[in-house]
Amino acid sequence: MTGQPDEVRATTTNLYVGPWYRRSPFYEATLRDGCRAFDVYNHMLLPSYFDDPEVEYWALVNDVTLWDVAAERTVEVSGPDADRLMDLLTCRDLTRCAVGQGRYAPILAPDGGIVNDPVVLHMGEGRWWMQLADSDAGLYALGVATGLGLEVEVTYPEVYPCQVQGPKSARTLEKLVGPGIYDLRYYGWGWFEIGGAPVVITRTGWTALPGFEVNLLGTEGGTELWDAILGAGEEFGIRPIAPCEARRIEAGIFNYGSDMTIEDTPLHLMGMERLVEEQPQDYLGKAALERIRRDGVDRKLVGIELDMPELEAELAWFWPVRHDGREVGRVTDAVWSPGLRRNIGYVWVPIELADPGTELEVETPEGVVRGRTAAIPFVDPRKEVPTRPLR
Questions:
Q1: Is the pLDDT of residue 386 over 80?
Q2: Which terminus of the chain has a lower count of CB atoms within 10 Å, N or C?
Q3: How many CA atoms lie less than 13 Å away from 161 in the CB half-sphere?
Q4: Which residues pair with 260 in a beta bridge?
Q5: Secondary structure of residue 52 in the 3-state scheme
């Protein structure tokens, strides 16, 4: 661990952090502002802990927060066949995604398995961005393009997002870019300037709350952009936080690599079925998904509520799940929800056990606890947020 900052060394006891793990342009600012632990995501250090998770949660749902999510690697697909390639890669109908719009778009293998679940942005004629979860979807896109002989370029531009999330996020960014921030529709994007530097702002995020992602173009100026956002949000109580597990699980948002992998299709995850859109054109995995939809899925990722003391940490590994004494699945995520005042998460179960209210036994490190399946999202489908409990 020689040569690594104390803040990183203290949180990676059994992991050597070398130069092949990239640092975001906001890295120094996150250390200065109290980041205490990092994850490795897309080969980059991702802040995972600033303060008590409940403090961060209420800052997010009540005010405004700033996240370093530069680890969402951006892949650009451009050229004469870029539109065709992008539409081939996903079950979303991107022929209906105009320039200036975006989509949450699962990238699929030929068997319908999920390679990645990026936000896809239509940046211009024959030009797209994929902002990726942690997998090599850029190499996959390059392989598909090469195999089909398509005239495209697949590149990794220097684009580094930070998220501004919470009900006061628009008022914060209005102070930096003006009222045009209110013109962005959900999953829309626009060009803006902050401190004279161009940025791309998208109305997206990992919370299902009002929020935006501010994309720094280039590796320079990360601290300056970070500080400008903090300054604009000071009157609203802005604070840097890590990605909020409790809020994203409440909202029914999944994490690639834990909740789903290439072995799962969108039809296997509660709520993602809607992303398999009817369309006349072919795409990778279409025949497989049509067969699965016709025959039905054998398993489902659904919600789970756990009868146990308040969880103080996230899962270090999957928890086995039993029904009538037989192992039937696994919990992929579990967290204490400060708003709902209970432990919630996701669980894979056979389809016959997927209805809400099915009783399960969950093997946790502290012993076996009772759980029951639940519908996703845990909050109101209109994405209303829990209110702060009276104390």
A1: no
A2: C
A3: 28
A4: 256
A5: coil
Distance (Å, rounded) from C-alpha 206 to C-alpha 252?
A: 10
- Establish if 381 belongs to a structural domain: no
| Element containing residue 327 per DSSP (H, E) | strand 326-337
* Whether 261 and 363 share a structural domain: yes
Q: In 3D, which of 350, 337, 349 has the Cα closest to residue 377?
A: 337
Read off the CATH number of the domain in which 267 is found: 2.40.30.110
| 219 domain-assigned | yes
Mean pLDDT of 346-351: 98
Do residues 229 and 94 share a domain? no
pLDDT at 61: 95
Token pair 């099915």 in the structure block, residue:
358
Those residues whose C-beta lies under 8 Å from the C-beta of residue 289, and which sit 6 or more positions away, are 91, 108, 112, 265, 266, 267, 276
DSSP state letters, 195-263: TTEEEEEES--SSSSSEEEEEEESSS-HHHHHHHHHHHHGGGT-EE----HHHHHHTT---BTTTB-TT
The total of structural domains in the chain comes to 3
Contact 274, 102 (CB under 8 A): no
Given a cut of 70, whether residue 382 has pLDDT beyond it is: no
Query: DSSP for 119-130?
Result: EEEEEETTEEEE
Single residue among 120, 155, 190 that ends a domain in this structure: 155
Measured CA to CA, the distance from residue 24 to residue 234 in angstroms comes to 23
Mean pLDDT confidence for 232-237:
98
Reduced 3-state DSSP string for 256-307: ECCCECCCCCHHHECCCHHHCCCCCCCCCCHHHHHHHHHHCCCEEEEEEEEE
In a domain, 385, yes or no: no
In this structure, the strands spanning 65-68 and 239-240 are parallel
Q: Does residue 151 share a domain with residue 265?
A: no
The domain in which residue 215 lies consists of 6-72+158-247
298 with 329: CB under 8 angstroms?
no
The answer to whether the pTM exceeds 0.90 is yes
pLDDT at 387 over 90: no
| Token pair of 327 as six digits | 């192992």
Residue 93 to residue 106: CA distance in whole angstroms: 11
Residue 385: band (very low, low, confident or very high) from pLDDT cuts 50, 70, 90: low
